[in-house]
Write a structure and sequence with these properties.
The chain is α+β, with helices and mostly antiparallel strands. The chain has eight helices and nine strands. The protein has two domains: 2-68, Phosphorylase Kinase, domain 1; 72-251, Orthogonal Bundle (Transferase(Phosphotransferase), domain 1). The chain binds adenosine-5'-diphosphate (ADP) and magnesium ion (MG). Adenosine-5'-diphosphate binds at residues 1-2, 4, 16, 18, 51, 67-70, 74, 117-118, 120, 130-131, 133.
Length: 254
Amino acid sequence: MATIWLVTDPGDRSLALRVMHDSFGSGSNGPTLFRHGCEIMAKLAPHRNVITFHDSGKVSGREYCVLQYVEGLNLREMNVREDPMLEEILSDMIIDLCAGLVHLHGQGIMHLDLKPENLIISRGGILYLCDFDTAQAIPDTPTKFDRKSGTPLYMAPEVVNGWRFDQRADVYSFGVTVYEMLTQLKPFEGQTSKEKLTNQLNPKYLIRKPRKFNPNIPALLEELILKCLEFVPEKRYLTMGMVARDLYKVMGVH
Ligand SMILES: Nc1ncnc2c1ncn2[C@@H]1O[C@H](COP(=O)(O)OP(=O)(O)O)[C@@H](O)[C@H]1O
Ligand SMILES: [Mg+2]
């Protein structure tokens, strides 16, 4: 949806300029999503694991925003490059991802597009959540939202199916992302994305236990991941705060 430019301000500070792609003309809902994402980011209190927002506007008919620039790679790029740093910092990244989401949920916001591409890892190994185009305020009760984008294999079944949902959709995407971080696999079997999605949307499908592929995963972490990936939202953790409580126990974080 956007192109990111590394820019410097008059004070020689490096910043990221996020400009909406040309293909999203005024006829599409692109500008609305982009602006909505900016409004949400602008209201967020700063957090170590969330990209900081500085400014937004429109120039020559194109939406833009100015963000903190993080020198690094997104998690997908790190995976593709088989970056040796990845294994070293894996547990820190899971904790960072959880902490960023706890902060978001604590501020009444759900991200709704969690996936490796939207997680930037700095050179120092700190994870930052980015891309708030699809974020929404957490509703009081599960609600139907008009969702136009997202990546189905990371999305909760209730979101893909167009049913009512709430912050537990993020809990699910956290589960898919962590599963993949630890096994390099999606939780759902299939030769193609379509086959995987069919399994993902089957309420009776039994997810392959991640320890089968990576025996170093602690049993309690496996349990936590599988609870995040429950088909029925009521069986998942209610909030990321609750995920954090269990995760910190497993990881020995105090
Ligand atoms: N503030 C930033 N600093 C450094 N890199 C960024 C920043 N924001 C985004 N990126 C990089 O650009 C990619 C695309 O940005 P994103 O905001 O996710 O836009 P979109 O997915 O809509 O194209 C991200 O996956 C990340 O690699
Ligand atoms: Mg993105």
